[in-house]
Write a sequence for this structure.
């Protein structure tokens, strides 16, 4: 299944994908506690909890770094982080991310 299809399925089944939900799913898929995941990401447990609960948003750069470190889709992570910020701003917009083409 492609990342684009995965995002559509998740949105249909669970509603809008948030970065916090993405991170929580990654943590539970790896069967890690919040303390173990926080240690793995070199952040505090309270920061991880705040991100997972949507009380703290992450930058696009940090979303990509976390996804890469966890071996997950950077595209989905970045898209979720951007859409979190759009929802927080009450903008009736959504972002769809795709990999940039290499230029010569």
């Amino acid at each position: 299944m492609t990342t684009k299809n995965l995002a559509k399925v998740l949105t249909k089944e669970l509603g809008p994908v948030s970065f916090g939900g993405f991170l929580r799913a990654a943590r539970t898929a790896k069967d890690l506690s919040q303390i173990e995941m926080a240690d793995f990401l070199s952040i505090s447990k309270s920061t991880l909890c705040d991100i997972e609960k949507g009380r703290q948003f992450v930058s696009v750069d940090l979303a990509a770094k976390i996804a890469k470190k966890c071996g997950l889709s950077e595209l989905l992570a970045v898209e979720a982080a951007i859409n979190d910020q759009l929802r927080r701003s009450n903008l009736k917009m959504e972002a769809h991310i795709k990999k940039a083409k290499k230029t010569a």
The mean pLDDT is 89. The first helix runs from residue 3 to 14. The radius of gyration is 14 Å.
